[in-house]
Amino acid sequence: MTRITRRDFTVLAAAALLARPTFAQTNAAAPITRAIPGTGERVPAVGLGTASVFDSDDDQTQRAAAQVIRTLVDAGGRLIDTASSYGDAESVLGNVIAAAGSRDKVFIATKLEEPDAAELKRSLARLKTAKLDLLQLHNVREPQQSLAQFKGWKAQGLCRYIGITSTSHHAFAAVEAVLGHEKPDFVQIDYSLDDREAEKRILPLAGEVKAGVLTALPFGRGRLFRAVRGKAIPDWAKDFAGSWAQFFLKYLLADERVTTVIPGTSNPAHMADNLGAMRGRLPDPDQRKRMVDFIGNL
Ligand SMILES: NC(=O)c1ccc[n+]([C@@H]2O[C@H](COP(=O)([O-])OP(=O)(O)OC[C@H]3O[C@@H](n4cnc5c(N)ncnc54)[C@H](OP(=O)(O)O)[C@@H]3O)[C@@H](O)[C@H]2O)c1
Q1: Ligand 1 site-directed mutation target among 219, 248, 259, 278, most atoms within 8 Å of CB
Q2: What does the DSSP 8-state code read for residue 144?
Q3: 183-209 pLDDT, tens per residue?
Q4: Residues 6 or more apart from 201 whose CB is under 8 A from it?
Q5: By Cβ atoms counted within 10 A, which residue in 147, 170, 183, 242 is the most buried?
Q6: pLDDT tens figures, 29-80
Q7: Ligand 1 mean position to 221 CA, how many Å?
Q8: DSSP string covering 225-247
Q9: Whose CA is nearest to atom 31 of ligand 1?
């Protein structure tokens, strides 16, 4: 039997320490992906939201959108969330994606205000695609709302998945009811470190009905950045978060029920920063609790 001397032990311990990945090293690891509960298809855990940022279809917006989407795709991201009601955003995305020939590299989620065939036709035309990845009913309000029309379109091959959305807590009872009777493939809900109502009400039910979860407003429309302005990331968070954006997004991603976070930005540097949240370690339950306390005490 080989004997390990005190000196061997010291050398081995030092080697083990050196082998421990630093934040920068874990950052280079494969991106975090999540399985869509209904099918098992894996999607990257950080995507892009497009409310307000690509509202007008002009050259400057198209240039910004092209850079943001290139940054997303090059870093292994895929999911882009838009809506028929986000100004010209669908047209901007459609033009940029067609010009880059990247339709098969992105997962397009859009939303309709109503189950209206004319509205769907317009979204497909603006997005320059024959088939959406995800079609969502925007802002569910009534408990009895039906997804029958959306299910029909899915059966016809016009979309691969269907979903519902809301960012209004007054509508959570309606969201719960529709999740229960329609069992959509996805629910998109407001969820951020300082807005955790969805954690108690929507995420458990999403798990039961096997709906994927997209987190709208992961920064509370920028509210979280304003709350920490001028403050440094606490030392205990530095081995999993290289920026405040990653701190906020990793809180959400540490909940395995979250499929993809969809922070909004028209800034490629912010997109790259946000994409860093799907690399490296996620906070453990104790660290998550500490994150909640930290934000609550600001
Ligand atoms: N009912 C619904 O279905 C519903 C409602 C609301 C939102 N949504 C979806 O959720 C998405 C996200 O919501 P949102 O865009 O309104 O709010 P958000 O993602 O919570 O916050 C966006 C704000 O954060 C800033 N930001 C982004 N990345 C940053 C970074 N790395 N560092 C510093 N600042 C950063 C953005 O500014 P910059 O542009 O300067 O980066 C912007 O001011 C929407 O785009 C939309 O797709 C859905």
Answers
A1: 219
A2: T
A3: 999 999 999 999 999 999 999 999 999
A4: 172, 176
A5: 147
A6: 789 999 999 999 999 999 999 999 999 999 999 999 999 999 999 999 999 9
A7: 5
A8: HHHTTT-PPPGGGTTT-SSHHHH
A9: 270
Q: How many CB atoms lie within 10 A of CB 75?
A: 17
Output the CA torsion 112→117→123→129 (10° steps).
130
> Which is nearest to 195 in space by CA: 224, 226, 230?
224
User: Is residue 77 within 8 Å of residue 106, measured between CB atoms?
Assistant: no
Chain position carrying tokens 């390990």: 4
Spell out the long-range contacts of 168-177 with Cβ–Cβ below 8 A and sequence spacing 24 or more: 168/139, 169/197, 171/139, 171/140, 171/141, 172/197, 172/198, 172/201, 172/202, 173/143, 174/140, 174/141, 174/142, 174/143, 174/145, 175/140, 175/202, 176/201, 176/202, 176/205, 177/143, 177/144
Distance CA(69)–CA(49), nearest Å, equals 11
186-190 and 260-261 strand pairing: unpaired
The mean of the pLDDT values for the chain is 93
Which three-class secondary structure state does DSSP give residue 259?
coil
Structure confidence at residue 27 as a pLDDT band (50, 70, 90): low
Residue nearest to atom 38 of ligand 1 (CA): 265
Q: Determine the straight-line distance between the first and last CA of the chain, rounded to whole angstroms.
A: 58
Using the structure block, give the residue that is written with the tokens 């990331």.
233
Q: How far apart are CA 105 and CA 126, in angstroms?
A: 18
Bridge-based pairing state of the strands 42-44 and 33-35: antiparallel
